[in-house]
Amino acid sequence: MSEESFRGFIAIPSPSALRQRVEKMQAELRKLSLDVKWVLPEQLHLTAKFLGETPASILNELKETLNRIAQEFHAFSFSVDRLGAFPNLRRPRVLWVGGPETPPAAQPLIQSLEEVVSRFGFPKENRPFKAHLTLGRFRSPKGCEKLEKWILENPLSWREEFPCDRLILFQSTLTSQGPLYAPLHEVSLTKI
Fold first, then answer.
1. How far apart are CA 133 and CA 120, in angstroms?
2. Domain housing 62
3. Domain count, the chain
4. What is the spatial distance between Cα 12 and Cα 32, in angstroms, rounded to a whole number?
5. pLDDT digits (tens, 9 = 90+) for 84-112
6. Which residues sit opposite 52 in a β-bridge?
7. For residues 76 and 87, is the Cβ–Cβ distance under 8 A?
8. Chain centre distance of CA 157
9. How many CA atoms lie within 13 A of 127 on its CB side?
10. For residue 113, what are the CA distances in angstroms to 138, 176, 185?
């Protein structure tokens, strides 16, 4: 019998004002008939570390690790003011909102998370960290040329501060309606 596990990730939750703005933007983008699986606004988050299949037997150790990290790192924020796509707008796989750059204060936190969870056997991310919130994932390139044109013609007219003051360990359960996220443990980063 295999060990019990859950699909896990560590994230920073998004503020409600940003979720409301994103919901309006998604409504406009839906008019483009893109072949995108949209993220529900209430599930928007900044992923600090995707874990994947996580043995339930290490849950308590993961919680203790997050408690220690929260004491070592200060809260920070970044500005969300642009819409983009990974790897690019011509061949998008992920549609996102984010800022001009990843906040410098985020890098040490992310590096520490990478280091400590690697001790549990999770692979380190080989791509540089880019602070972003995923709005949707493309199932096919249908409508991509319309998206690029729309983004050029409709730059974001707003800017929202994204406070990064908490880390949450989530369990993600995949369903036919989309993933369901359940918080398993939450810690507050040290206030400045």
1. 26
2. 5-188
3. 1
4. 29
5. 999 988 889 999 999 888 899 899 999 99
6. 8
7. no
8. 22
9. 8
10. 28, 31, 15
Question: Which residue's structure tokens are 């003051």?
Answer: 165
Confidence of residue 47 (pLDDT cuts 50, 70, 90): very high
CATH number for the domain spanning 59: value is 3.90.1140.10
How is 72-138 classified by DSSP, letter by letter?
HSB-EEEEE-EEEEES-SSS-SEEEEE-SS--TTHHHHHHHHHHHHHTTTPPPP-SPP--EEEEEEE
Quote the tokens at residue 133. Answer: 């919130």
> In this predicted structure, what is the pLDDT of residue 121?
94
Hunting for tokens 């994947």 — which residue is that? 52
**Average pLDDT score, the chain:** 92
Residue 97's closest CA among 105, 107, 86? Answer: 86
pTM: 0.91
Residue 97: CA atoms inside 13 Å, Cβ hemisphere, count?
27
Which residue's entry shows tokens 């919901």?
23
Cβ(84)–Cβ(96) below 8 Å: yes
